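Narrative progress, year one. The postdoctoral researcher (J.K.) led the effort to move from monomer predictions toward full complexes, under supervision of the PI. The following entry was the first complex the group processed end to end, covering 686 residues in total.
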Amino acid sequence: MTMSNTGGRRRPPTIHDVAREAGVSRGTVSRVLNGGHYVSPAAQEAVNAAIRKTGYVVNRHARSLITGRSDSVGFLLTEPQERFFEDPNFNVLLRGCTQALAAHDIPLLLMLAGTRDERRRITRYITAGHVDGVLLVSSHSGDPVAEELRAAGVPLVACGKPIGLGSKVSYVAADDRDGARDMVRHLLSLGRRRVGVVTGPLDTPGGVERLAGYREVLDEAGVGFDERLVVSGDYSRASGEAGAERLLTQAPDVDAVFVASDLMAQGVLAALQRAGRRVPEDVAVGGFDDSPAAVAASPELTTIRQPWDRISAEMVRVLLAQIGGEDPAAVILPTELVRRKST
Amino acid sequence: MTMSNTGGRRRPPTIHDVAREAGVSRGTVSRVLNGGHYVSPAAQEAVNAAIRKTGYVVNRHARSLITGRSDSVGFLLTEPQERFFEDPNFNVLLRGCTQALAAHDIPLLLMLAGTRDERRRITRYITAGHVDGVLLVSSHSGDPVAEELRAAGVPLVACGKPIGLGSKVSYVAADDRDGARDMVRHLLSLGRRRVGVVTGPLDTPGGVERLAGYREVLDEAGVGFDERLVVSGDYSRASGEAGAERLLTQAPDVDAVFVASDLMAQGVLAALQRAGRRVPEDVAVGGFDDSPAAVAASPELTTIRQPWDRISAEMVRVLLAQIGGEDPAAVILPTELVRRKST
DNA sequence: TTCTCTACTGTGAACGCTCACAGAAGCATG
DNA sequence: CATGCTTCTGTGAGCGTTCACAGTAGAGAA
């Protein structure tokens, strides 16, 4: 029983305790802690032994106070909160970022900027230097928080190409256009010629790019573009359902649909089913994301995989580089067609 | 242009700057910052004006260094990570906790303890005092991290009744048994008599309680208990699908199913559909959670709402109370039957 | 007047760490 | 022998707060 456990916590050992235990000075312990340059092997060893023995863990507040760094980063969501809950992609991204940061021993602070007040509070918190950088999820345009952070010089990496922030903001994104091309080519290769599309929100680069890829392939295949085959959605399940209904009205002969998100594709499947169309026999359906929703759908969705694990890893890499003084960077990652039952 | 914006960030104002600006001492500013007791109205006013003028934000690291508090809490997930992504409840809980904490200006640190290494690192981080308390999501038994934290005297609030941690750990949970009772009563009230159940994992209190509620109502209604009507799952969609298949084999005359989670209920619906049973005409299906999955299902699920917003709010309240020195507490919250299309 | 009490204010010390600097020791070079 | 260089080590200062304490001013009571 080394620990009296009556509610209060014992005062943890300090760098001083370690120094005394190892028979060296605070400075030497600090040097060992920070890379071990200019430390003799003997001292190195003694300090490490003392750290193990005392169970020392550095006090990050004391360190931050003098270094000016916080050694933590924020994960900021300025989207309308609903999307967060409905879209499984956020989970995957959040998890990936948390783990990638954990590998660097950097905690992730979750920040949800929903209301005006929350936005103000969070902006203050960040610009006050309480985090070293921010991972940003905000695909819609005109985001005042992001703009303010950028102006304040806070290292920032967005997920997906941000709008209206100039070229000074780093971002990591999947190759939306190329992914869309792959999917539409796949649908054409099945012999379908009346290929519809349910787009994402067209005020986001992702939405625009996926639509552009669709058009490109139709052009290159010599299949005419028919605007009755195009309806727009907002990535939500409900908008997919509504979109499919509109599509069936405008172009009843549709024999394939490229849907710009898996969640919308779920809605499309439901609407088609209700209309008595069989998938994939009557209408082939292709999604986008390869989110958990793709496997949960029935039939399971053929979709375009966004490499979320790589996206999150790259976001963290770019952010840390930027915190380290490097210039902003843009990273585009390749997508992959995943064939399942819906095509 | 008050801010030179060439990459570096300007040194933020300190309490000293505010004191000089307001013509008072650091101590007075500090008192205003911490509640304003024993401060004259005039000084109060002057300090607030100076804070607004300078844009001062307290340096939390300096504060933490001396107070010993970190004014932050961890949100710790020790579940197998997959559940996190599949189960929409986690999102709602995470969001609720983040927002409830934000109201107290307390940041939430997301901690995912998947691997052994991660567990060790996180345990060290927490016991070193880098967070004041922990919100714990870990319904399965034998969680070494939780036990270690409890032993170290870290304020801890679990979501759902934890197993094997003695009574010293606070928790907040929905009234699982009562919810199950409501649902089964509802199914009986529809005239169904062959009511099956797909349970949750039976090494968790939630799973056990929901099954107990089911049995209680059958007993009280004089409907005999038939073990062929009972299959067990693990809250995952896939296990619901498998469970329903087993149920149809063991008891083909089943006319209602109480499923212990919405996600499993999705799987049950899929399996029933495949087997040619109509819902709700042939088989009524009741879920549990009222997660987004309930509305996404087709037909939309009748389910038992867990009051996630209240659960998260209570978790935060209890945790902060405990950090403030109060004793651990258990909170049980009522559930609510939500009728939709599946019954 | 003198004392006590309350309301308020300022000051130095401390929290635990890193950083800059000074210096010691060892070795090669002039 | 002095000089310089490299490698290593210890020391004092200071990061921006809070806290304990000392002190002041004014009001009321003796």
